[in-house]
Amino acid sequence: MANTATAPEITLPARRGLTERLGNELRFVPVALGLVALLIFFSFQSDVFLTSRNLNNLLIQSTVTGIIALGLVFVLLTGEIDLSVAATSGVAAVFMAKMVVDTGLPIPLAILLGVGIGMLIGASSARWITLIGVPSFVVTLGVGLLLNGVQLLLLPNTGRYNLLNTGVEKLAATYVSGPAAWALVLVASTLFALIRLTTFRSRRSAGLPASLGGGVILPVAIVGVVLIALLMFLENQRGLPMPVILFIGLLGVMCYIAHETRFGTYLYAIGDNAEAARRAGIKVDRIKITAFAIAGGMAAFGGILSASRILGVSVSSGGGVGGGALLLESIAAAVIGGVSLFGGRGMVIGALFGALIIGTVSNGLNLMGVANEARLIVTGLLLVLAVSIDRGIEKLAGPAG
Amino acid sequence: MTEPILRLRGITKHFGPVKALTDVSLDLEPGKVVALVGDNGAGKSTLVKVMAGAHRPDSGEYLFEGHKVEGATPASVSDMGVQTVYQDLALCNNLDAVQNLFLGREMTGPWWTGFRVTRAHAEKKAKDVLRRMRLDSISLSRNVGAMSGGQRQNIAIARSILWEPKVVLLDEPTAALSHSASEQVGNLVRELASHGLAVLVISHDIHHFVLDNTDRIEVLRLGRNAGSFNSRDVTGEQVVNVMVGGNEAVNMAG
After folding, report:
1. For residue B212, what is the domain's CATH number?
2. Half-sphere exposure in the Cβ direction for B166 (13 Å, CA)
3. Between A and B, how many CB-CB pairs are < 8 A?
4. Helix axes A29-45 and A350-367, enclosed angle (nearest 10)
């Protein structure tokens, strides 16, 4: 009978099943399929939906939420949360506008300063959280309100800085088309291919199993096809909108940081077992502070991009007091994209899919003539559904899910 | 008889009024597995923490390779070649075996790659170590959270030997394991010793794990040495008897 006792130990498959892979590197697949389903649904509901003009709008609408969510993912991966990202985006945008309008600071410098302030806000909150050991939930809630106050202080009596004809509006209004756009697509695909290829080559030279088809050709082909399709679709409009280019660029950088670098590994380690990370010699506080700084910087940049698009900043920049819909949609985007609020699980690319799903629902329902209240209800239901599917996959994937 | 690589002489450690350890001595020899047994509160974990540098003893000598160790810290002890695997394993469930094995000691590319993890080298080294320890059945790319208790324990032990220590201290490696998983860990422990490591194992599983897999049994009772047995010449009942204080301290080890 000894054999039957040992059986469960040795028959565990060395090859990972589909559910286990869905819980890890293929985690974004269900949400990507959900996005495709939504696109198909809305294209049947409205003739306008699939036009390049509308998709152009949809993409631009999704970038601000997407960029803020992108930064937020880093904080969520460590098992913390930053409820001040929307307020940070508002303060940074107002600060940038103030510099440009009141002091005539060169725009690139003002933008850089705004992003720097966002990073500083994130880092300061995190320093406080790690130093005192207070929950990030509470600290960033307080910081968010504090920043709302600062935002009002920074604004002039009119309650608004107009950015039309200052040059800031060009950030969001620029389109890249023709050979330049094709060159961008080529550069992006080449960089991605290089990353994949170096992994493949180092595995092969170490004598480890490596698949050229599955590890290099297939992923590069998918990324290439998606980018080319995007370009061809938007080319007969005005080309690639700058916000979309910036979002895709940042997405690539953030994916690399989270999934390829040592810092990225530490984010995941801390999110799952901070004590184990600490004992392994990882400077947990420093990693968390960096994650919050990234979230703050990205939020600031998202806010600046939004200011550029709507040609000004006001009381309602950054979602208004408490962060409003901007904060909730940024968190929802990350969570719909499969990033766990409990830390250590999810992928950076989830921020893209989450933001696109929220943007698609909003845009699609709008075109169908559905009222705003229905849009909120549907988004809320989608959030619950996405998290439930995610949880189900995790349960199937392994005992420690 | 081989020279001990790690020797404790007359170690005493009190926490306020609690006499955790009183005049305890212990030798660990290369290639030998020593079991540290005793009832709850006998001082086993305290003794391991002294060896690991986590507790400073009030008095007594800590010798490593014949040299006196002064002011041991967890880092200095680990650097001199003594690795400890605590009961909680300290694994990250969302990382795979290779990532766990190298956690905190990743091999990376230069700064301009953002310290990109060069996984291939790590994976190759992990593969070699696991093969040497006859743990080839463990998948390197599965998340540790999806593995069985025995496999997780083995990965925690494998991590401790990745940097080629001379001594490995295992705090209750079989506490939460099924019988068959305990056997796996037992195989690994003997394998470590066969590669010349000195191994210390805390275990409550006297009848199976300790008698089957160790060379010598050191018994602690109420913070003192209570007996030392050659594992081949003793029965479980005798050991348990000494553990709970049925006999005077005995020395039956050759």
Report:
1. 3.40.50.300
2. 12
3. 126
4. 10
The three-class DSSP label of residue B2 is coil
Chain B residues closer than 8 Å to A207 by CB: 124
pLDDT (mean) for A354-363: 94
Cα–Cα distance, A58 to A63 (Å, whole number): 9
**In the block, which residue shows the tokens 């190298």?**
B102
**Where in the sequence is the domain holding B214, given as residue range(s)?**
6-91+165-251
CA distance A378 to B176: 46
Report d(CA A310, CA A279) in Å as an integer.
48
Could you report the per-residue pLDDT of A162-217, keeping only the tens digit for each? 999 999 999 999 999 999 999 999 999 999 999 999 999 999 988 888 889 888 99
What residue ranges in chain B does DSSP mark as E strands? 6-15, 18-28, 33-38, 59-64, 67-68, 82-85, 167-171, 198-202, 216-221, 224-230, 250-251
Domain assignment present for B246: yes
- Which tens digit of pLDDT belongs to each residue from B135-187? 888 888 889 998 888 899 999 999 998 888 999 999 999 988 888 889 889 99
Q: Decide if B120 and A202 are in contact by the 8 Å CB cutoff.
A: yes
Residues of B in contact with A257 (CB under 8 A): 114
Total domain count for chain B? Answer: 1
Contact A67, A247 (CB under 8 A): yes
Antiparallel, parallel or unpaired: β A175-176 and A160-162:
unpaired
Comparing CA positions, the residue from A328, A318, A351, A321 lying closest to residue A89 is A318
In chain A the domains, ranked by start, together with CATH numbers, are 25-177+238-397 (1.10.3470)
Assess contact for A287 and A123: CB atoms under 8 A.
no
Contact flag A12-B151 (C-beta cutoff 8 Å)? yes
CA atoms within 13 A on the CB side of A347: 23
In a domain, B97, yes or no: no
Nearest by CB: A16 against B108, B119, B142: B142
Partner residue opposite B145 with nearest CB, options A12, A264, A400: A400
Domain assignment of residue B160, yes or no: no
* Residue A17, token pair as written in the block: 């099943």
Contact A283, A275 (CB under 8 A): no
Chain B residues with CB inside 8 Å of A282's CB?
Answer: 103-104
**Mean of pLDDT values over B77-98:** 92
Query: Pick from B199, B182, B191, B209: which is nearest to B131 by CA?
Result: B191
Domain presence at residue B173? yes
Nearest alpha carbon to residue B216 among B12, B5, B37, B38: B37
Using an 8 Å Cβ cutoff, are A100 and A304 in contact?
no
At A344, the amino acid letter reads G
| Cβ-Cβ contacts under 8 Å, B184 against chain A | 9
Q: Do A260 and B114 touch (CB under 8 A)?
A: yes
